[in-house]
From TrEMBL:
<dbReference type="GO" id="GO:0005506">
    <property type="term" value="F:iron ion binding"/>
</dbReference>
<dbReference type="GO" id="GO:0016226">
    <property type="term" value="P:iron-sulfur cluster assembly"/>
</dbReference>
<feature type="region of interest" description="Disordered">
    <location>
        <begin position="147"/>
        <end position="188"/>
    </location>
</feature>
<protein>
    <submittedName>
        <fullName>Nitrogen fixation NifU-like protein</fullName>
    </submittedName>
</protein>
<dbReference type="InterPro" id="IPR002871">
    <property type="entry name" value="NIF_FeS_clus_asmbl_NifU_N"/>
</dbReference>
<feature type="compositionally biased region" description="Basic and acidic residues">
    <location>
        <begin position="168"/>
        <end position="188"/>
    </location>
</feature>
<dbReference type="GO" id="GO:0051536">
    <property type="term" value="F:iron-sulfur cluster binding"/>
</dbReference>
<feature type="domain" description="NIF system FeS cluster assembly NifU N-terminal">
    <location>
        <begin position="7"/>
        <end position="131"/>
    </location>
</feature>
<dbReference type="Pfam" id="PF01592">
    <property type="entry name" value="NifU_N"/>
</dbReference>
Length: 188
């Protein structure tokens, strides 16, 4: 039980002291995602330097509102992907998605997910998984949109290594509320 208390403290710390919060410029793409189940919302911007999978995530900025889980997850996501290449950040996205789909059965790798391991307990509660994934799905969507919109970009590298248009693939547990996204949401 001490581990669960530590995880709760990590989530509360990121909730109270969010990293990367606040919309900033420059950015190549902005998306808006909402979790209609509980009302969590995020507007997220991505600034990339370079092209393709080797582009570096120079900045991720966001404005969000919602529960402590969604807010803390956005902060953790910022810490994990900021400064990484798109390829590295997509691997982290996959690791976090796998953790969230594990139903509490996966022992997360702290060396890979850092503070993201705090969400291991969240994966036991299906209604909370959507909260934890909201900013991650928005980041992936914005990154895909930024890469498609590059002057020399022919598409974006998704997690399976295939070229898609603006993250068109669908993931189990994806909760972005497509029907509820406004036009900024770069429809998935």
């Amino acid at each position: 039980m001490q581990v669960e208390a530590l995880y709760q403290d990590i989530i509360l710390d990121h909730y109270k002291n969010p990293h990367g919060k606040g919309l900033r410029e420059p950015f190549e793409a902005e998306v808006y995602h909402v979790n209609p189940t509980c009302g969590d919302e995020v507007t997220l911007r991505v600034h990339l330097e370079g092209e393709g999978a080797d582009a570096r995530v120079a900045d991720v900025s966001y404005d969000s509102m919602g529960c402590s889980i969604s807010q803390a997850s956005a902060s953790v996501m910022y810490d994990l992907v900021h400064g990484k290449t798109v390829k590295e950040a997509l691997r982290l996205h996959d690791e976090f998605l796998t953790l969230m789909q594990s139903k509490g059965q996966l022992e997360p790798d702290e060396d890979v997910l850092e503070d993201g391991i705090a969400f291991a307990g969240v994966s036991k509660y299906p209604a909370r998984i959507k909260c934890a994934l909201l900013s991650w799905m928005a980041w992936k969507d914005a990154t895909a949109k930024a890469q498609v919109d590059q002057p020399n970009g022919a598409g974006t590298l998704d997690v399976s290594g295939t070229t898609t248009a603006a993250g068109a693939e669908d993931h189990p547990g994806d909760h972005t509320g497509d029907e509820d996204n406004d036009e900024k949401g770069a429809g998935r």
